[in-house]
Amino acid sequence: KCFVWSVLVALHPVKRQANPERIHHYQQLEHELDTYLDGITFSVSLDNVNVYSYDSKLVVYPLYVTREEKDTHVDMLYMKDGNNSHYCLIRDLSRLVRSQITNQDNDLVVLALLTTLWHGRPTEQTQRRL
């Protein structure tokens, strides 16, 4: 159920001081995802979610990125060790991949849908064109 909890954490952020990793914040919201998760079986297969993973050198790469444009995108990190697997929420994809792309201090924007990288902030007009 780590997939469900990760989605709920993304949709209902809790202040860091309130221990957002504890599921009691989200248990009463679990029913909210029933419509969205209808047809998804657990354990979730990789073609059901936007998901990234990493290799032995800790280089992050996309396993699956949806082609559909949504108002809210939830990025997940998929980890596997032998027979155990786990999904966790990626709160900031740019932060996760920054060190493998650049050593500059300015902002880095990663547009996951297009797997496009921007140094600095793209303008709204540029984002619309993409």
From TrEMBL:
Taxonomy, superkingdom: Eukaryota
PANTHER family listed in its UniProt record: PROTEIN CBG23764, RHO TERMINATION FACTOR N-TERMINAL DOMAIN-CONTAINING PROTEIN
Listed name of the protein: Uncharacterized protein
Organism: Homalodisca liturata
